[in-house]
Every structure is written in C-alpha cells, then in structure tokens.
Amino acid sequence: MKFTVYRNAAIAACALGLLGFMVGCWEISVSFESVDPGTSEPVIPAPPVPDPRVSSTTLIPETNQTNKIGLIDSHILVDRQHSTADAKNQGTLRMSNQTDQPVRVALLARQPQGKNSGDQPTNYDVPAHWDFEPQEGSEKGLILSLPHGNLNLERGDVIVAFAQDGSRRYWGPYVVGETSAPQWNTQNREWLLVLSP
To answer: What domain of life does the native source organism fall in (predicted)?
Structure first.
C-alpha cells in the first residue's frame, strides 16, 4: 500500500516538474487579478517594442537616379524602332499560346549596328518578357507591346518561351528571320509565333 502512495506522489511530482519546465521554456506567465477594481494598479501603456528585423537603416529612400535608370532601360526597345536599319520584315509580334500550360515569352532584341560594324560582337537591348495563361490568345493571338510603346521585331531578335508549371518544357530559341518561327505575315506586317503542345 505504501508503494502505491509513493508511486503516485512520484508521478505527480514528475508531472508538475515537467509542466513547470514546459511553462519556463515557453515563457508562459500566470497572473491573478484583483476582483475589486479600486485596489488594482493603474494601467500604464507599454512603449512599443521595435522589431529587431526592421531598423531605420533598412528603409532605403527612392532616389531620382534609380528612376532615371529605369526609364532609360525601358525606352531602349522603343527607341530602336526609329533606327535606320533595314525596314524589310520589321513589324509587331502576335503571340498565340495553344498549350495547356502557363508560358513566359522572353525577347532579347538586337541593337542596330552601324555600317562599319565589321567584326564587332552583336549587342542586345534590355530583355523583355510576357506571361500567358493556358490557351490565352489561342484563336487569333495577341499583339505584344511594351509598357511605354509599341514593339517592333527586327531580323536577328531572339525569342524563347518556356512553361511556368515546372514541366521544364520550352520552345525556341527562335531567331527572327532566320528560323522557321516566328512566321512573317506580309499582309499585316507582323510576326506570328504559335506555341503548340
């Protein structure tokens, strides 16, 4: 009989010790309030606790210099339209996604070269990309444009498309005027890129 009493006392002591250990680790506090509101201490608002992850040095003010850079980069492709390059087969891009996958189309536009370019390496403008839902523009296609103007493709521009669903499927790379796609439509003066499953 004494053994069961000691055993129950030992189990209760271990349970309370374990409970106290867990309360200490989780920083749980227990407090009791007075029932009489007149005897309780006045409530003093606590000062706000600053988040250690955010400091005054974390906030970076936006400067005019970064805005100027962004505007310059976004206008490069638009300014290219007014180049003196050969205007043959220069036109817009109509894109048709006939797949059941979300697709991203990326364009790397070639910068116009001068007449004395010779052996100089090919330079490219700032790349641009567009995202398409499955079957978006599958019937007639969609004409692609840039945020600050129209898009004109020229011979030598590079287009690649890839699925965004993790399937690792891609189309291209297509070199405008040199590969079978995109196809030139002389009537509408536009390039047509059709992505098929």
So the answer is: Bacteria
Q: How far is CA 140 from CA 33, 94, 97, in A?
A: 72, 9, 10
Over the stretch 122-145, which tens digit does the pLDDT of each residue have?
555 667 888 888 888 878 888 888
CA–CA–CA angle 169, 174, 179 (5° rounding): 130
Residue 93 DSSP symbol:
E
Q: What are phi and psi of 4, to 5 degrees?
A: -70, -35
**Amino acid residing at 114:** G
* Percentage of residues in the chain having pLDDT higher than 70: 59
Whose tokens are 């100027």? That residue is 68
- Contact 110/42 with Cβ under 8 angstroms? no
Characterize the bridge pairing of strands 92-97 and 103-108: unpaired
